[in-house]
Amino acid sequence: MRTQVVIIGSGPAGLMLSQLLHTHGIESIVLERQSRDHVLSRIRAGVLESTTVDVLRQMGVSERMDREGHPHDGMRIAWAGRDTFFVDTYKTLGRRFMVYGQTSIQEDLFAAADRRGQPVLCEASDIVLHGLESDTPHVTFVQQGEARRIDCEFVAGCDGFHGVSRKSIPASVLKEYEKVYPFGWLGIMARVKPLPDVTYANHPRGFALASYRTTSLSRFYIQVPLDHSVEDWPDERFWPELKARFPAEMAEAITEGPSIEKSIAPLRSFVAEPMRFGKLYLCGDAAHIVPPTGAKGLNLAASDVFYLSRALAGWYARRDAAGLDRYSEMALRRVWSSVRTSWYLTTLLHRFPHFSDFDQKAQEVELDYLKSSTYAQAALAEQYAGLPFEPEA
Fold it and tell me: What is the pTM (predicted TM-score) of this model?
């Protein structure tokens, strides 16, 4: 087989990139090591920056999001039973963010791929990238017991943290930054009415978050030790613990119900530099992981593929390599900005087991300052809602 761009991974980053390339008349083939059902079954975040919403509209896959998604003006922070305060992104910046589940986005992207006849080769094993520093890269893999090969001009690594793409960059070239947090998030999905705002809670018992997917489908999280398992948290234990971490009035408004999904995710920050090696370009979780506190993971994937698709469009339209040459540097500026925001919110809102009395007091003063300062809230709102994309040079 032959194509212009081979995309490794059919998650949101991979399928968004294929859709954007299609709008520019650029051919691609998507390789996925899992089955389609497995990809669609993954439960992820659902808070979309305004820029991500714009990208989904630009690529023509926003009809369902615009119909079923829920625009939000900002986020609420509750602190150890004190009065809550609202960080208003719309009032501050004139921009809203959208609550729309990643699973729904994945369904929309697969449907769009099917409509345009996009080749998506699932259950492809033994994927190997070849000739990345040459003008004739190619990818080999095995599908249904048959060895196959795709010749291409570029490879986009959208295959997540554990994928083959980043591992194809020599260790002498790649520099990795990582911070592992000493706790995880226990998250559940329940068919109950959500709270009106996306609400973050800092409490002596630990962090909690109330989010949602629809008007009748809620997503809740609590901070738990890393050695806990889902079996340690039956519903009858989870709901009282969740409510204990919110102010009484908000706790009373939380509706209990049987969980339909439950999982524990460790928290880490991870960045790999550079995001380009020869003809290979990394996008999304293949290059960076952020704690879910800042709701940046999917949004960073969207910005990566926006920059890369724009760069590839410049190359194929004008043989202009400037965008490709600047891709890594430009993408990483936004990545590190989001990493910093996620680190700030994680440090601000969680109870760390190693915190001294000094650390705890500093956290409390920071929360007081954020509550009382419109300037501090504006700075957070700007980062939380998402910075605008950098223009082409």
Answer: 0.94
Please state which CATH class domain 5-75+98-178+269-352 belongs to. alpha beta
State the pLDDT at residue 81: 63
Q: In this structure, are residues 245 and 118 in contact, taking their beta carbons and an 8 Å threshold?
A: no
Determine the average pLDDT of the residues in 276-286.
98
Lookup: tokens for 313:
């469009």
Catalytic residue positions?
72, 200, 292, 296, 384
Domain ranges of the chain: 5-75+98-178+269-352
Give the sheet arrangement for strand 288-289, strand by strand: 85-88, 74-79, 198-202, 208-214, 217-224, 175-190, 259-273, 288-289
What is the C-alpha separation between 227 and 180, in angstroms, rounded? 14
Q: Which ranges of the chain would DSSP assign to H, the alpha helix? A: 12-23, 36-41, 50-58, 63-68, 89-93, 102-116, 164-167, 235-244, 248-253, 297-318, 322-349, 357-372, 374-385
Does the pLDDT of residue 387 top 70, yes or no?
A: yes
The mean of the pLDDT values for the chain is: 94
